[in-house]
Write a structure and sequence with these properties.
CATH topology: Sulfite Oxidase, Chain A, domain 2
Strand content: 15-25%
Distance between the termini: 29 Å
Bound molecules: ligand MTE
Shape: globular
CATH class: Alpha Beta
Number of helices: 9
Structural class: alpha+beta
Length: about 300
Amino acid sequence: MYFNRKTFMRGVVAAASVATTAAVYRRLNGKSEAAVEAPKLAGLEAPAVSAEAAAADGYRIDEAMTPLASVTHYNNFYEFTTDKDGVADRAKDFSTKGWQVTVDGLVGKPRVFDLADLLKISPPEERIYRMRCVEAWSMVIPWAGFSLSKLLARVEPLSAAKYVAFETLLDPARMPGQKTGVLDWPYIEGLRMDEAMHPLTILASGLYGRELPAQDGAPVRLVVPWKYGFKGIKSVVKISLVAAQPKTTWNLQAPDEYGFFANVNPKVDHPRWSQATEQRIGESGRRATLMFNGYGKQVASLYSGMDLRANF
Ligand code: MTE
């Protein structure tokens, strides 16, 4: 009975979110830029390479950025609420004081980083990425962060490390959504080692030149632009290098709907909706979804010879 109810509720949540996306984007589109309250991000690097080189790397795409108001007021962060419009308000008092990130597992130098030390690994760079949610809406977000590979290099991965597992903070007092059973907590995610080492995979600590707002995953979250947005785990406290493919939250919830790889793929539909097109928040009309979210040139080789329908 419990699992049936859970499955039913998941269906309701997903169907409602697809149905309301169009209405919500119209409303958000009319909103002026939200007052920016987050402090300016320290040390944001002036771009070291030309716009052309950045575009070729996929680091900064040349597409209209989604307004800040939408990036910060249309969120998926179930630790606070399943209501996309409500996350910002529910998360507004979230404190990241004393934040630490443990990096352990199959590494030569496991370490617990204080946030400030973690962020010192490399100055943040601006990365303007598409983000395609599995629910078929998308945004273009100017993140600030650095390649996860730089952190992994610090802890000296052992050759037995084949995957990287990530965990969000577990603290129901600070994240009230964790008092509900809507997901199994803590939120967990994973990448294959080569995906984790790819330069496009970043740990983001800011957006729009400011510190990451709580609703977007403060103080530090993962961004993997060629994968569906749910791979971008927020408010990370633990990163473990492991030998076997780690379990992931959405795959545990609905294994037939959300795979481990979750590469954006317009040819592999979700069982309950098409993935061929998407609603770019702030635009009218739908646009075609791109293979690997438009990052095929950079990442397709990671999957050569793999059946992407079976490994969805
Ligand atoms: N991380 C945690 N811990 N909890 C979540 O509910 N939602 C995911 C992902 N990371 C989620 C999460 C989903 S479904 C998406 S689409 C993106 O965050 C949304 O990121 P945004 O709200 O910053 O746009």
